Amino acid sequence: MLTPPAFLNGFVLMAGLIVAIGAQNALILRQGLMRRHVGPVVAFCAASDVLLVMAGVFGVGGALTQLPWLMEALRWGGALFLAWCGWQAARRAWRPAAQGLQAAARTQSLAATLGTTAALTYLNPHVYLDTLVLVGTVAAQQPAAARPLFAAGAGSASVLWFMLLGYGAAALAPWLARPATWRVVDAGVALVMFSVAASLMVAGL
């Protein structure tokens, strides 16, 4: 069966990978809290993620099907990395930071903000590991006909997440400042990471 499961698999995987709050997500949240350049920043991040996901699914994922030994290595490497990410998220949920996310008071021009956004996006090695390697590896486990829906699900998760971050930040400001909020987020991330890692480990059995 290709349809809803393939879309949902891509959506859930990308949602689990992208929810962890890193420098890029923190920037979007700060812009949302300040209500400055939200649209351009969200559009840039969403478009970048969609392009990288497409490259992972139809580039790396397709190439991996021609190199079964490499697909096996990446499958196990990706599973171990996802398990490590889940462990880190579980630790953060168990022992949260003393403070929640705070917005910076300093503002930048649109050009400077987009430059910072581009650097945080494309100079971060994790973005390539997430989109090209991990998403590509999981996509390679899907039937060829299901991969477009898998890519659509993964891209949709990115677009929805960035929009929620940018446009929901101001409304969520009181909760974002609470460590308990991030405990819940990190606990959810840990569950997703562990489940995806387990599915990769049993994919070849």
Description:
This protein has 205 residues and is mainly α. The chain has one domain (3-201). It is 81% helix and 0% strand. It is built from eight helices and no strands. The protein has helices at residues 3-18, 23-34, 38-66, 68-94, 110-122, 125-140, 147-176, 179-201. Helix 1 (3-18) crosses helix 8 (179-201) and helix 2 runs antiparallel to helix 3. The longest helix has 30 residues, at 147-176. It is globular and about 50 Å long. The model has no long low-confidence stretch (mean pLDDT 78).
Task: List key phrases describing it.
8 helices; mainly alpha; single chain; 205 residues
Shape: globular
Average pLDDT over all residues:
78
Low-confidence segments? none
Helicity, in percent? over 70%
- The N- and C-terminal alpha carbons lie at a distance of 20 Å
The helix-strand sequence is: HHHHHHHH
Task: Quickly give the structural class.
Answer: mainly alpha
